UniProtKB/TrEMBL annotation:
Organism this protein belongs to: Diospyros kaki
UniProt keyword Lyase present: yes
Organism taxonomic ancestry: Eukaryota, Viridiplantae, Streptophyta, Embryophyta, Tracheophyta
Gene designation: DK-ACS3
Protein name: 1-aminocyclopropane-1-carboxylate synthase
Enzyme class, broadest EC rank: lyase
Domain annotation Aminotransferase class I/classII large: ranges: 50-433
GO MF assignments: 1-aminocyclopropane-1-carboxylate synthase activity; pyridoxal phosphate binding; transaminase activity
């Protein structure tokens, strides 16, 4: 019995199976592959690649493990919790366990300082934030429709929002001259470009806190965004999966706070507002695949709940998390301690890099920071950025993510994740990049080095907030992941 050649696969399989729309060929994922083929280990492979491209929160697992040990009844796989095994194992309602939805609503409120309440009946679960985003897009748009997305943005959105839904993403270019802040002018310009191209814009997707910037939206910016979506009658999807990672002032303001304050007025249409949340970042549970859609639109909530049957959270996971997230003493302790540890790790990394003249965007949230290596580029082009990135990944052995994979309009920026490793690995990573920069500077001529240092003094965020405006070509209307050059 023979096998079909690969040349005939395209005729045998669906378009979605053969069109490459998943985006695996991005430099973002190429860095992961480099790590997977040569992972760092302090004794087994000390010269391997250190993973700094994965936004995981591993800094507080001692607190979680302590809670699990002290609450054995929360698991149906312990002697203390086995009595709930059958009821949990046979539960099939895609609304989810009532106590799970109540626990999630409680945790979401605690993360936001109890300044707002969430209705458990509006909690719709999905398979992680990935599933939540796709589910919302299916509810809000048809194939060919588009969402505006400010750049730089998480590369996975090209997969999560586009691959199976058929929608388009229209970039809204943001620039370092104003710290990559979203402006009304940029939103209107992107909306006009889409309209001129006969593309129907159905919504605006905002990540707050930002991935990859690690910044948060101010209230005035949020009100401008609400005015924009209300004026144009399009949806607003707020991705708030990093809400509990804010580690210093100013504090995070959820869109839910503004909705609650403005409810009943004519200033906003709450039917247009939807929140995506998960426990992957704030709690550090990406493997549990807990995503949440919280919509203020009754029809969207109803439709999303029906769709959730394609990506439910296991009842065993729901049962455990219902107990954990309802324990206010644990939740309060975890949020406070996580913030302290994230702040220290962020400071250790950014100050360590600043000592060798490497700056970063000023930030106060997230599991990463936005590193500025523009002065190390041979020329200000995406090709030069990818060339530098390949050196960092394959020679320095650090998997940082290049800005071009985040659709950044200015070459030379890189996302660096800092919460997915222990202190010893962090010190190894710092030594490697500091050594690399020192060698690069030593190779430069005196005149160029002096100019480089002078520019860095202007740019370093820990010394001064102003940044240098650079020419930034606009991104194309459609936004497939930028592929790494070989």
């Amino acid at each position: 019995m023979g096998f079909v050649s690969s040349n005939n696969q395209q005729h045998l399989l669906s378009k979605i199976a053969t069109d490459g729309g998943h985006g695996e060929n991005s430099s973002y994922f190429d860095g992961w592959k480099a790590y997977d083929s040569d992972p760092y280990h302090p004794t087994g492979n000390p010269d391997g690649v250190i993973q700094m491209g994965l936004a995981e929160n591993q800094l507080c697992f001692d607190l979680i493990e302590e809670w699990v040990v002290n609450n054995p009844k929360a698991s149906i796989c312990t002697a203390e919790g086995a009595g709930d095994f059958m009821d949990t194992a046979i539960f099939q309602d895609y609304h989810g366990l009532p106590e799970f939805r109540e626990g999630v609503a409680n945790f979401m409120a605690k993360v936001r300082g109890d300044r707002v309440r969430f209705d458990p009946d509006r909690i719709v679960m999905s398979g992680g934030a990935t599933g939540a985003h796709e589910m919302l897009v299916f509810c809000l748009a048809d194939p060919g429709d588009a969402f505006l997305v400010p750049t730089p943005y998480y590369p996975g959105f090209d997969r999560d929002l586009r691959w199976r839904t058929g929608v388009q993403l229209v970039p809204v270019p943001c620039e370092s001259s104003n710290h990559f802040k979203i402006t009304g002018e940029a939103l209107e310009a992107a909306f006009r470009r889409a309209k001129d191209a006969n593309i129907r814009v159905k919504g605006l997707l905002i990540t707050n806190p930002s991935n990859p910037l690690g910044t948060i939206l101010g209230k005035s910016t949020m009100r401008d965004i609400l005015s924009f979506i209300t004026r144009n009658n399009i949806h607003l999807v707020l991705d708030e999966i990093y809400a509990a990672t804010v580690f210093s002032q100013p504090r995070f303001t959820s869109i839910a706070e503004i909705v609650e304050k403005e409810r009943g007025s004519n200033s906003i249409n709450t039917d247009l507002i939807h929140i995506v949340y998960s426990l992957s970042k704030d709690l550090g549970f990406p493997g549990f695949r807990v995503g949440i859609v919280y919509s203020y639109n009754d029809a969207v909530t109803s439709c999303a709940r029906k769709m959730s049957s394609f990506g439910l959270v296991s009842t065993q996971t729901q049962h455990l998390l219902a107990a954990m997230l309802s324990d206010n003493d644990f939740v309060g302790k975890f949020i406070a301690e996580s913030g302290k540890r994230l702040a220290k790790r962020h400071e250790d990394f950014t100050k360590g890099l600043a000592q060798v003249g490497i700056g970063s965007l000023e930030s106060n949230a997230g599991l990463f920071f936005w590193m500025d290596l523009r002065r190390l580029l041979k020329e200000p082009t995406p090709e030069a950025e990818l060339a530098l990135w390949k050196v960092i990944v394959h020679e320095v052995k650090l998997n940082v993510s290049p800005g071009v994979s985040f659709h950044c309009s200015e070459p030379g920026w890189f996302r660096v994740c800092f919460a997915n490793m222990d202190d010893d690995t962090m010190r190894v990573a710092l030594r490697r990049i500091r050594s690399f920069v020192a060698k690069r500077k030593a190779m430069e001529g005196p005149a160029k080095r002096q100019c480089w240092r002078s520019n860095l003094r202007i740019n370093l965020s820990f010394r001064r907030k102003d940044d240098i405006a650079m020419m930034s070509p606009h991104s194309p209307l459609t936004s497939p992941l930028v592929r790494a050059r070989t």
